Amino acid sequence: MPRIVHLTTVHNPFDNRIFHRECKTLAAAGYEVALLAVHTDDESREGIAIRALPRAGGRLARMTLGVGRACRRALVENADLYHFHDPELIPAGLLLRLLGKRVIYDIHEDNRTAIQEREYLPAWLRALIAGTFAIAEAAASRHFHLVLAERYYAERFPRGTAILNYARFPDLDEAQLAARPRAEHPRLIYTGNVKDYRGAHHHARLLDHLPDAEVFLVGRCDPDLAANLQQRADPSRFHLDGVDTYVPHERIVDYYLRERWTAGLALFPPSPHTLRKELTKLFEYMAYGIPILCSNFPNLREIVEKPHCGLCVDPDNPAEAAAAVRYLWDHPEQARQMGENGREAARTTYNWETQAKKLLNFYAGII
């Protein structure tokens, strides 16, 4: 079978989309798969050869020295097809194309709007960089096969193939899910990177309106943001797991299975970057039978309200969000039914297995 190399200098080697979905799907189909990522040592896991790239240091070093190292290591692999996941790797992808290699660019984000959420950039500079990058990305993309992680990216990249970020449907005994204990007070969970534009403060401030509730944020969080959140929240009711560190997917699953959560949170504030996103965490909450509490954006309402698997609220109205939590807590049978509805929707529609077939067909069309 052909030899495939996936490249990332940004994501953890065991990233959900890259490792657990795409690479594992390809390896199971018989492809020889190598993953180049920042890691301590080379290793083989679940049939995938992980090639360790050294950590480059700061952001600028990663985008220059790190990209150069990744490109050199990729050429050593001499693969039939290269599949890269970070916009900063576009120059490496172009070099590979110049050398006659087949290259896929996997577009995880709407990078044009994502750049405008980068807190480390001065606000006045973000729009300029975003506009310049969008032009360069559009020009470079003509030389690659394109994979799109969300549907609406096709507006900018009509040649792209949408392979969506749905969660793998877990092989679980339904009795195990039903047996999860219910806490004595509302307990809310959020999973994924913890950032301001992803609702970190919106989730924390729920506690101001729910004096008997607890909130758990599980995912990498910048230390400065963590300190800010912890300063304003009651430490006995606000919990952060992932301060300045990656949280493995296996630990997130342990959280999902730990108890019957009152709701899975996704109260993203409205912005050009968040208003149209399809959030992977919603599909995970659904797969594990957790009722959803999310922002009332049109695309999220379509995902959540159609199968009746949660509640959508104005993310900038904490009293409304708190009332929704209280409703879920005070109506446990309705909340349980929402969880079951979400699990059924994940089983039939919102699961990676539907996308795995598209990925394999996409690869077959290239090779």
Mean pLDDT: 95
Shape: globular
Distance between the termini: 10 Å
Give the biggest beta sheet.
Answer: 8 strands, mixed
Label the structural class.
Answer: alpha/beta
CA-atom Rg in angstroms: 21 Å
Number of helices: 14
Roughly what percent helix? 40-55%
Beta-strand share of residues: 15-25%
- Cross-sheet strand order for the largest sheet: 3-4-2-1-5-6-7-8
Uncertain regions spanning at least 5 consecutive residues: none
List SSEs in N-to-C order: EHEEEHEHEHHEEHEHEHEHEHEHEHHH
- Counting DSSP E segments of at least 2 residues, the number of strands comes to 14
Give a verbal description of the structure.
- The protein is α/β, with parallel strands linked by helices.
- Helices cover 43% and strands 18% of the residues.
- The strands form two sheets. It has an eight-stranded mixed beta sheet, with helices on both faces.
- Helix 1 links the parallel strand 1 (3-7) and strand 2.
- Helix 1 (16-28) crosses helix 14.
- The protein starts with a strand and ends with a helix.
- The model has no long low-confidence stretch (mean pLDDT 95).
